[in-house]
Specification:
The chain is built from eight helices and 13 strands. With 305 residues, it is of the alpha+beta class. The chain starts with a helix and ends in a 5-residue tail after the last helix. The strands form two sheets. Strands 3-1-5-6-7-8-4 form a seven-stranded antiparallel sheet. Helix 5 (175-197) crosses helix 6. It is elongated, with a radius of gyration of 30 Å.
Length: 305
């Protein structure tokens, strides 16, 4: 009987140990679940915390700065007056308080995002748009747009395959400058293709020559056609100056903005000031410098022969 009693006591002790072990394991599992559920974002698409449709005002910061976001740091581009440069450098916050424009941006662009999942790690943020939305005086939402992605402040990411085509409605303060910069970049891209394709020698077919050159280096249609289209005019509207030869001075006009057309060539009579707002047009010099011309008087000061 004594041995049997001892055996029972040992079994009870083992049972208590097993029970304690099971309880400990259950506690650990519950703690892990709590950490998963509450310690990081859910894998389920969240409610639209980035929704701006009820906002009456949004404030936008272009990062790392307005002048850098608009890419006006290229030393080969002379696109801004002193006053414009000072204005953009001082512009730290862009305000849009037009509810209809905000709704267009919200319902045409933001609602179309594809949910990617919880963000992981700290993103490498270069050019980005930091947006804070207000409903009256109350802060309603905030998020960051990086390239074609949107990151909410609570740690979720959305992807936009077509980008944000209506962002101009909330960036009206700087949109003309952004279009001017893109137009100048197009001319810079054409300059490289012109040099490579030797289109100087075939100015009557310069567009065709550049098109073939770009197609040979990268057959992607969007790449091939992109520099021909000024974002302000949405058409192919550049002309070549046939008087610019391989041995011409570096400051001779090579390409310039004109009305719609293909393989256009000629002189200042073809130049137009109507593709941009405020009025003006870009010219590309032989050495690769791009200038923004605002008046007929400035146009006459350029070297055309």
């Amino acid at each position: 009987m004594v041995a049997f009693a001892a055996h029972i006591r040992r079994e009870i002790g083992y049972s208590r140990l097993r029970f304690a072990g099971i309880c400990t394991a259950l506690v650990l599992v519950l703690c892990l679940l709590v950490c998963v559920l509450y310690g990081q974002p859910s894998a389920r698409p969240p409610d639209p915390a980035y929704d701006l449709s009820r906002c009456t005002r949004i404030e936008i910061s272009l990062l790392p700065s307005t002048i850098t976001y608009l890419q006006f740091n290229n030393k080969k581009q002379v696109l801004l007056t002193k006053e414009e440069d000072e204005y953009l450098r001082s512009l730290t916050t862009i305000v849009c308080d037009n509810p209809e424009n905000i709704r267009v941006f919200a319902l045409q662009d933001l609602i179309s995002g594809q949910y990617i999942g919880p963000t992981r790690g700290v993103p490498r943020i270069g050019q980005s748009m930091r947006i804070v939305g207000y409903d009256g005086s109350e802060r309603a939402t905030s998020f960051t747009i990086i390239g074609n992605s949107l990151r909410t402040d609570d740690g979720h990411e959305f992807r936009y395959g077509s980008g944000f085509p209506h962002r101009h409605v909330v960036l009206s303060q700087v949109w003309p400058f952004l279009l001017r910069g893109v137009c100048a970049d197009n001319l810079s891209a054409l300059h490289g293709s012109l040099t490579y394709s030797k289109a100087y020698e075939r100015y009557g077919q310069w567009c065709d020559a550049v098109w073939r050159s770009r197609q040979e280096s990268n057959p992607d249609p969007s790449y091939v056609k992109s520099p021909f289209e000024c974002p302000s005019a949405h058409v192919c509207h550049y002309a070549i100056n046939p008087n610019c030869k391989p041995d011409s001075p570096a400051d001779t006009v090579l390409l310039f903005e004109t009305k719609p057309g293909w393989n256009q060539h000629g002189g200042p009579e073809l130049f137009t000031l109507d593709n941009h707002d405020p009025k003006g047009g870009c010219v590309l010099l032989k050495d690769g410098t791009v200038k923004f011309i605002r008046t007929e008087e400035e146009l006459k000061q350029l070297r055309w022969k």
